[in-house]
Amino acid sequence: MVQSLLNIIKGITNRRVQIAVLVFVGLMVNYMLRININIALVEMTNPNNSFGPYVNWTDYGGEGVSEINANDAEGFVKSAFFIGYVITQVPGGRMAELFGTKKVFGFCMFCCGLLGLLTPLTVNFKSASLMIWSLFLIRMFQGLFQGVCFPALNPLVAKWSPDGEKGKFMSFSYLGGTFGAVVTYPLCGIILAHLSWSWVFYITSGLTMLWFVCWQCFMYDDPEYDPLISTAEKELILRTRKFDCQQVSEDLTVPLVPLVWDIIKTPAVWVCMLGDFCNGFGLYVLLTEGPDFIANILPVGKSISANGWIAMLPYLSRSIMAQVFGTISDFFIGGGYCERLTMQKICASIGFMIPAIGMVTMSYLTSDKLQFVCIGVLSISFGFNGAILSGHIQNILGLAPNRSGTLYGVTNGFGNLSGYIVPLLKTWVVQDTTSIAEWR
Q: What is the mean predicted confidence (pLDDT) over 232-251?
């Protein structure tokens, strides 16, 4: 037991572990800012909310909005984030390759946090149209800044992760986003049970600013120039990573358009793009519409606090399973039991098929007697989606270690088109949010 404790302490003192923790927390607050509005909207549009202010999309300040009804307005606002998010994916990855992840990721998260602080001010407009459009623009600009973030991280991972630890490094650090959902939904549920919905935005944005200070103080883009890393750890990383320092100067001279064109001509890239789109579609059905489904279909979800805890469970399961699959993947690859590409295919298959089956099954388990079975099926099946971080997501790093930022921008940008489509499709398909037949 003492030896195990010593191993844990030794692991924490490893600089690459500290870098992974900074990325993890950064993505946690990233997701907080991305999804806080999904649960806040439940109370914002509830005329019986205890703390106000109540947001009436169609008759705000006595002025109706003829072209948008309440359901359409929610879908309009939710989709705004992804309009911006898709646009900056490729430029974000390329900027990180040119200027470093520390500057690009840090600056964009700081700006996104500032916009989060401004969100509650939109209700001061007495015109419904102005309120909706101002909220739309804030969410769109938040998407523009956040679209940079995930692609900007790939160059950092390529520089900091030894090849034999890539699965664990990515499974842990990139799951910060999923853990952000784990924290945000119950946190917002508690906030909404005791305070105005405005505090959802103030608190999540404040946590982002606190993280930004830590990021600026302790993050370094390259282990070669990090004054806090030990010589032994630096030599280990430089000896075993796939990133090629000598290729950097050549890569910096390649124009963006020819680089992207070269990327999209590669068949393997299209596999990753389609994988990202399909995965994103299922993810955003749960991420953006999950609280609405829980509140309107499951009897236990009528309480806003309970809604937050229930919405958190699938992401908690995903966080745990991602670590399991990351460890298993590294074990089989490192032990020579399985080729890396074969293991990535296995993980991708598990990460897609089991959650898809679970999502269909849960829609038939929503009665009073079976609602907790529904929650269990949703949570357990979605947990297997954590395998994708050892599947097609990891494959992107292997395809182009030195250009992984731009490559991830292409694949993730295409994949997140689904984030724009899902809220609009839900508005069109689910006219009555209390009808389980329409949700199916």
A: 73
**What residue spans of 123-253 are helical by DSSP H?**
128-146, 149-160, 166-173, 176-194, 198-218, 231-240, 248-251
Dist. CA 156–CA 253, nearest whole Å: 20
The DSSP annotation for 5-56 comes to HHHHHHHHHSHHHHHHHHHHHHHHHHHHHHHHHHHHHHHHT-TT-SS-----
* pLDDT at 384 exceeding the cut of 80: yes
- Among the residues of 195-301, which ranges form H helices? 198-218, 231-240, 248-251, 256-264, 267-297
Residue pair 310/378 in contact (Cβ under 8 Å)? The answer is no
The alpha carbon of residue 267 and the mean position of all alpha carbons in its chain are separated, in whole angstroms, by 26
pLDDT band at 365 (very low <50, low <70, confident <90, very high): confident
Dist CA 326 CA 435 (whole Å): 39
- Cα–Cα dist 121/197, whole Å: 12
Give the closest residue to 333 by CA, choosing from 390, 268, 418, 264. 390
**Amino acid at site 99:** F
Pick from 263, 239, 219: which is nearest to 94 by CA? 263
Cα–Cα distance for residue pair 274/2, rounded to 1 Å: 47
Q: How confident is the model at residue 61 (pLDDT cuts 50, 70, 90)?
A: very low
CB atoms under 10 Å from CB of 356, counted, come to 15
| pTM, entire model | 0.75
d(CA 19, CA 237): 13
Instruction: With H, G, I as helix, E, B as strand and everything else as coil, classify residue 4.
Output: helix
- Summarised one tens digit per residue, pLDDT across range 171-217 is 788 878 878 878 887 888 888 888 888 899 999 999 999 999 999 99
Residue 324, number of CB atoms within 10 A of its CB: 15
Contact call for residues 314 and 180 (beta carbons, < 8 A): no
Cα(37)–Cα(118) distance, rounded to whole angstroms?
13
User: Looking at the DSSP assignment, which residues form a beta bridge with residue 59?
Assistant: 64
At residue 246, the 3 state secondary structure works out as helix
